[in-house]
Amino acid sequence: MKITRVRSRVVDMPLTGDFHPAWARGRNQTNLLLVVIEVETDAGITGIGAAHAGLEAAVAIERFVAPYFIGQDPTCIEPLAAVLRDAEILGPPLYCMEIPLWDILGKLAGVPVYKFWGGFSDRVTAYCATAEIRSPEQRVDDVHGLLADGYRAVKLRFHQPDPREDLKTVEAIRAAVGDRIAIMVDANQAGIEPGFGGHRPWGFQRAFEVALELERLGVVWLEEPLARHDYAGLARLRARLSRLKLAGGEDNHGLHEFKLLLDLDCYDILQPDVLLSEGIFQVRKISALAEAANREVAPHTWGNGIGLLANLHLAASIPNCPYFEFPHDPPSGFTLHTRDQMLRAPLTIDSDGMVRVPDAAGFGFELDEERIERYTVQRFG
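The chain above was modelled as a monomer; its predicted structure follows.
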C-alpha cells in the first residue's frame, strides 16, 4: 500500500453565540477554525485527521509533509512520525498528521484504533471543561445543570486579577453541592496567547497560596500553575502539596520535554494533546513512561471533534487515564454541538458521566461533508 495524495481543507465554522474564553484576554471567539486532513492510498483506504489551526498548518502540511508522505507505505508509521518531528523545525507542529495513518491502519485491520493498542476500556470518565469566567452564582447554577445532565466532574478557569475572587466560585460550588461533583482548576499559566494586558503571571508564591486553598477545598488538580519550562518551580510546588495534584503539559512538545517533566517531578498528571504535543502513538510512549513513574495522563482535547475523538482512543487504550477532558460550556457559543459540528453527530456522555469510544474501524470519524464543504475557505492537495 502506498500514499497517493494528501489533501487539506481549511474550514471556518461559526459558533452559535458569544464565547469569551478566559485565556484569550477579552476576545469574543465567534468561529471554530480547523484543517480537515485526508491521506489517500492506492488501496482505496483514506485516513482522516484534523489540525487545531488554520491556513498556517495547511501550508506547512503542503510544503513540509506531503512531499515526504506521497509514495510511502502508510502502515510504516515510525519513519513518517520522524518526518513530523523534523517538520516542526520549519513551521507549526504537525503531529496531527500521524492520526490519518493510524486511521488507515485501523480500517485495514477492521478494528477501532484503541483496540489495536490493547483496548484497556471502551469508555472514559469525562470532566466538563468550562472556559468562561462567570460569577459564583452563575457557576453554581451551571453545576446544577451539569449534574442533571450526568456529569460527575467540572473544570473551572482561574483568571481574575485577584485569585481570591476565583476561589469564591469553588467555595460556592462546594457549599451548594458538596462532594457530588469533582472539581479541577486551570490557571493557564503555561502558555499565553499573544496580546497586551489582562494576564498577570502568578509566580511561585501566588501559585503556592492558591494551591493550599484548593487543597483545603478538596479540588482534584491545579492545572498549569506556572510557566511550562519552570521545571524547578513546578517540582518545588508539587513537593509542598499533600493531596492536591498538579497537572499540565499541553504546551510542551516532544518526547524529550515530557520525559523531563517526569524525571524532574513536575506533574502528577501529564496532559499532552495528540494534535499538538507529539504524534498519537508517540503520546502512548509518554503514557507508558508516566505509568512506570506512577503518574497519570489526562489528554488535553480543546479544539474540535476530530481531535477530541482521536484523543479519546488514546485515553481508552491506556491504564492510567483518570479523566477525559470534555469541552462544553453552555449557554456560551462553545458547546459539544458546536465543538463537534464537523461530525455527523456529537460525542456525548452516558448516564454514568462517561464517554464511550465508537466501535467503528479506525477512529470512527463520520464527517458531515455537507457542512464541511459549506464552510471550507481554502484547499490544498
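The CA atoms of residues 249 and 271 lie 5 Å apart.
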